[in-house]
């Protein structure tokens, strides 16, 4: 096992250990405070992004959009499995508006011993697609048999 794999596998995967995560940590004063629900291999979060995270006026910064998509994909396998995003692709369908309720959904598409393939989509509450992504994550540690 590589040294970085040893370090990552030693990380506490309990939800309490991630209170300052930028995306989902509820105690991070500048974080997004996303709250996910899981249903099997799917994750979901409803959110509204404030102007503190805009790029162009009235538009959520693209990096924040990518962060939200990445987090939704991670929640399709976390906390049962600890993974590290190895490759991700993002597609922006339209600008993500600041101050408007949106939904992100993620889905675990495929699992092998060492890789996880995931996808995620951000939509407006009415269903209009804002952005989508696919990713592969490297399995660092798994509590699954």
Structure notes:
The structure is a single chain. The protein is 14% helix and 38% strand. With 145 residues, it is mainly beta. It has one domain: Thiol Ester Dehydrase, Chain A. It has a six-stranded antiparallel sheet with strand order 1-2-4-5-6-3. A hairpin with a 3-residue loop joins strand 4 (102-111) and strand 5 (115-124). The longest helix is centred in the middle third of the chain and has 13 residues, at 62-74.
Spell out the key features of this protein.
145 residues; mainly beta; Thiol Ester Dehydrase, Chain A; 6-stranded antiparallel sheet; 14% helix
Quick overview of this protein structure:
14% of the residues lie in helices and 38% in strands.
End-to-end separation in angstroms reads 19 Å
Strand order of the largest sheet: 1-2-4-5-6-3
The average pLDDT value, as a whole number, equals: 90
Q: Total number of β-strand segments?
A: 6
The general outline is: globular
Fraction of helical residues: 10-25%
Extract low-pLDDT stretches.
none
The CATH architecture assignment turns out to be Roll
- Output the helix-strand order: HEEHEEEE
What is the CATH topology?
Thiol Ester Dehydrase, Chain A
CATH top level is: Alpha Beta
Count of distinct structural domains:
1
